[in-house]
From TrEMBL:
Transmembrane segments: 12-41, 47-69, 97-117, 129-147, 159-177
Start and end residues of each VTT domain: 28-149
Pfam families for this protein: VTT_dom (PF09335)
Keywords: Cell membrane, Membrane, Transmembrane, Transmembrane helix
Membrane topology note: Multi-pass membrane protein
Organism: Gemella morbillorum
Record's subcellular location: Cell membrane
Any one of the GO CC terms: plasma membrane
Family note: Belongs to the TVP38/TMEM64 family.
Keyword Lipid biosynthesis: no
Name of this protein: TVP38/TMEM64 family membrane protein
Length: 181
């Protein structure tokens, strides 16, 4: 992927942005783009490109789910669940849903695609989704970008620290996920 993007020279950032915005919609792992963005463009430009791409693809996933699946799934479940079960799923307010979204984004429990498509099925407003999504996405993207930007010198202390940060980030997610069971 890195070689493919690099061959576009000055247009590489645009190609990267397009690929990083579109491929995750089709369940391509978006974390790869954070690492590649840091490696190819450094931390600053990589951060800008990767965060813009993440905002684009997560919002597109949300909207696809919201406008093409939500009513069908809601109607399907309404016929098969008790009122209490249905309200437990669809009765959460925007603030609770937004808080949980931030937690899901900050701690890598579930893949972004699953979270984004799932949130389109809820009754959260797009405004609340957009803001919570943005707040939750940025820290994780920056951690992966930092790692990618250090890949050019894997024997450096900076690379070691970035790798430790990634391991801690993933471990915290695993611990939280286990405690949520």
């Amino acid at each position: 992927m890195q070689n493919f993007i690099e061959q576009f020279g000055n247009c590489a950032p645009i190609i990267f942005l397009l690929l990083a915005s579109i491929l995750p919609i089709f369940l391509f792992p978006p974390g790869i783009f954070s690492v590649i963005g840091g490696l190819l463009f450094g931390f600053k430009l990589g951060a800008v490109l990767t965060i813009i791409a993440a905002i684009i693809y997560t919002n597109i996933m949300f909207l696809i789910s919201r406008y093409f699946a939500r009513n069908k799934i809601e109607n399907f479940l309404e016929k098969r669940l008790t009122l209490k079960q249905f309200n437990r799923i669809f009765g959460l307010n925007d603030n609770k849903l937004a808080t949980f979204l931030i937690i899901c984004r900050l701690i890598p429990i579930l893949p972004n695609s699953i979270v984004s498509y799932s949130y389109g099925l809820t009754r959260i407003s797009f405004k609340h989704y957009f803001i919570a999504n943005l707040i939750g996405l940025i820290p994780g993207r920056l951690i992966w970008l930092n790692f990618g930007s250090k890949l050019n010198n894997i024997w450096s202390l900076e690379f070691l620290m970035a790798a430790i940060l990634i391991i801690a980030f993933v471990a915290i997610g695993a611990i939280v996920a286990k405690n949520m069971e």
